[in-house]
């Protein structure tokens, strides 16, 4: 009888361990990346443009699948107009004029693709590369933490048309669903900085942001300036800049999302999967308002390298995520694989219980990282290892290759970045 009870206990422990493992990183009963994603966009022929988008769009407008549109220069949707884009529509950013689409505050974009018919923003170059065109900018009237409650997007855009921020956290700037954005991030004239593939300024929580893939961006893939966006099933693939950047008091939620980085693609300003900060300059910030808070669940951050150890030693790999001072992060049930180290905290964050309670990192799977959690510029992290290594946080540590860690990491067309449960089940037995 005792032997039977022991076997049952071992079985239950194994099942619980595997189930807990299954919950980490991107999840789904099937691979939700199938059908609508494209990991070799430079090989796709999207056809020749048949229609031009230029200037200001001041009235409700619909883009249809049967046409291929070229985005010339800075195109602004203004006057509270709604830009509707049919599933399967292709919009090509003009390389010569660095086409950029701006949805101004009060206007909306309804880009609701389908799993079998996504909407695509891409480059018109014969040889496509990061930074061929501008990107997509969506501006709303949700709160931000800058003085005066408003700001504007700089770059080389019309400042009168790029203001964002306000007092409406529940506003909607429309829908982006089953959308791909490829090769965006043009350089700004007279600056070392570039556009970001998808910039969300002051976006309210009624905006629908689901199943969006950004690939080969020269700047950041997703930049969130304030607002209260809710993001699900995002993908950032081999961008030069930061994959997910949140600042200016963003109260953001992101779940079941992915970032895959390359050791050989990086921006001069720094590159990491997740950057959570409240400001770049303290003097710009109104500290009477909410500082940045990101709640993130089931994220997978992976370095796409066959030789992670060698790349780390060569200095090609940096941290997976960064948390700035006066910012808060709740990161749960996520995977960080192949970084040096996994997490870096701003050097200005004093390591004490008060501050660490604002940075919750729990139920994680940290794999093949050169160190786990460090303060910026420090080589000693015993206090942080002790704090986050406590069993109450349920953080797990491992050192396996990408091929061992994920279901089908190297598949060139239909990769599967979910954790490889069969291998963990076998190990548990």
UniProtKB/TrEMBL annotation:
The keyword Signal belongs to this UniProt entry's keyword annotation: yes
Signal peptide: 1-20
Keyword terms of this UniProt record: Signal
Family annotation (PANTHER family): LIPL48, SECRETED PROTEIN
The protein's name: T9SS C-terminal target domain-containing protein
Annotated source species: Flavobacterium gilvum
Taxonomic lineage: Bacteria, Pseudomonadati, Bacteroidota, Flavobacteriia, Flavobacteriales
């Amino acid at each position: 009888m005792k032997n039977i009870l022991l076997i049952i206990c071992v079985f239950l422990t194994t099942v619980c361990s595997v189930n807990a493992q299954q919950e980490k990183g991107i999840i789904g009963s099937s691979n939700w990346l199938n059908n609508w994603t494209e990991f070799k966009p430079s090989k796709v022929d999207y056809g020749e443009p048949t229609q031009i988008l230029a200037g200001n769009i001041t009235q409700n407008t619909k883009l249809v699948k049967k046409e291929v549109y070229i985005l010339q220069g800075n195109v602004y949707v203004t006057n509270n107009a709604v830009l509707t884009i049919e599933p399967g529509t292709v919009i090509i950013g003009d390389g010569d004029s660095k086409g950029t689409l701006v949805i101004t505050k009060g206007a909306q974009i309804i880009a609701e693709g389908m799993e079998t018919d996504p909407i695509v923003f891409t480059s018109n170059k014969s040889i496509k590369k990061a930074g061929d065109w501008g990107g997509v900018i969506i501006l709303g009237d949700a709160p931000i933490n800058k003085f005066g409650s408003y700001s504007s997007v700089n770059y080389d855009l019309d400042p009168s048309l790029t203001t964002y921020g306000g007092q409406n956290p529940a506003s909607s700037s429309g829908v982006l669903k089953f959308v791909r954005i490829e090769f965006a991030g043009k350089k700004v004239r007279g600056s070392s900085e570039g556009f970001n593939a998808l910039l969300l300024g002051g976006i309210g929580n009624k905006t629908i942001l689901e199943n969006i893939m950004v690939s080969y961006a020269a700047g950041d893939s997703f930049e969130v300036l304030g607002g209260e966006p809710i993001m699900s099933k995002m993908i950032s693939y081999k961008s030069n800049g930061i994959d997910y950047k949140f600042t200016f008091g963003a109260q953001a939620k992101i779940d079941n999302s992915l970032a895959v980085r390359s050791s050989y693609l990086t921006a001069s300003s720094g590159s990491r999967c997740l950057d959570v900060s409240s400001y770049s300059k303290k003097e710009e910030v109104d500290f009477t308002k909410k500082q940045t808070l990101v709640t993130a669940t089931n994220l997978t951050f992976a370095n796409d390298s066959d030789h992670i150890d060698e790349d780390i030693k060569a200095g090609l790999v940096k941290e997976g995520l960064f948390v700035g001072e006066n910012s808060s992060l709740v990161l749960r049930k996520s995977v960080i694989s192949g970084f040096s180290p996994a997490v870096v905290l701003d050097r200005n964050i004093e390591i004490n219980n008060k501050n660490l309670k604002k940075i919750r990192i729990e139920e994680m799977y940290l794999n093949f990282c050169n160190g786990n959690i460090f303060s910026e510029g420090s080589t000693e992290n015993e206090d942080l290892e002790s704090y986050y290594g406590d069993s109450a946080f349920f953080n797990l540590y491992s050192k396996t290759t990408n091929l061992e860690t994920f279901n089908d990491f190297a598949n060139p067309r239909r990769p599967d970045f979910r954790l490889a449960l069969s291998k963990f089940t076998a190990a548990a037995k």
